[in-house]
Amino acid sequence: MTLGDWTSPLTLHDFLDVLVVAIIVYNLLLLIRRTRAVQMLLGIAFLALLYGIGQFGELPTLQALLGDLPILLPVAVIVLFQSEIRRALATFGRNPFWGMGKQEKVAPTFDDVVLAAHTLASRKIGALIVIEREEGLRNYVENGVLLDAALSCDLLISLFHTTSPLHDGAAILQDDRIAAASCFLPLTSNPELSLEYGTRHRAALGISEETDAVAVVVSEENGSISLAVEGRMISNLESKDLRNELYFHLVTNLYPQGRRV
With 0-12 CB in 10 A as exposed, 13-18 as middle and 19+ as buried, what is 115? Predict the structure, then answer.
């Protein structure tokens, strides 16, 4: 690259090039924020800094220790960030228009989910209800007990009753049906998560990190209702707040993130 390449005026092509790269980097940063990927990136950056110091400072011992870093680093990135890479590919491959057909079916289920959550919370019965959005949850459905039953408040309550053999795990909703119950979900590894959250809350956050699903959690300890979405936990929701959050995240994105309609 010559000096003339740097001093030449910017063109529309250059502007578009920078804009596309900036959008990609920005979305990648959004995907890894508040996850352990941030700490791993800092560790990799520190190793890269040491490698640079060893090369430019001509330090033989440091060069011997980190000499294979450029070769091993791409493999390490794939292994360490496999879940983040999977989420990124799913996000970039998502088409917002594909989910519009589901939204009309999801909206009527709000009342059943909200009423069931409120009833379970008043009885301090723990529950985890996962609502599928655009990304399919077939892998998690298949590791539970298949139901494919019409969604109803009474059925949700009976599933999570302590005497039910299916009360452990999550119930997964697809459109207006309960696809499966007693499903096991991935637990979040977020180091910033409060210790007050139990396994249900960690599973709810885990599925919201891995997919675009929305998870409703009822605590059996204090009867509080929470909503996990996009790797965030919205806690202490009343029935009206829960319905508004579900409407916002499943039907419309016209409002700023987290705002109640």
Answer: middle
Establish how many alpha carbons lie within 13 A of residue 182's alpha carbon, considering only the half-sphere containing its beta carbon.
13
The answer as to whether 261 is a domain residue is no
**Cα-only R_g, the chain:** 23
Mind listing the pLDDT tens digit for each residue in 208-255?
Answer: 888 888 999 999 888 899 999 988 889 899 988 998 888 888 876 433
Residue 213 near residue 135 (C-beta atoms within 8 A): yes
Spell out the residues 6+ positions from residue 239 whose beta carbon is closer than 8 angstroms to its own: 114, 115, 117, 118, 225
Provide the domain limits for residue 33: 9-92
Q: Do 25 and 126 share a domain, yes or no?
A: no
State the pTM of this model: 0.62
Q: What are phi and psi of 106, to 5 degrees?
A: -70, -40
User: Per residue in 236-253, is it b (16+ CB within 10 Å) or e — as a string?
Assistant: ebeeeebbbbbbbbbbee
Same domain, 47 and 105: no
Report the C-alpha gap between 112 and 69 in whole angstroms: 55
Query: For the chain, what is the domain count?
Result: 2
Crossing angle for the helix pair 82-92 and 69-80, to the nearest 10 degrees: 70
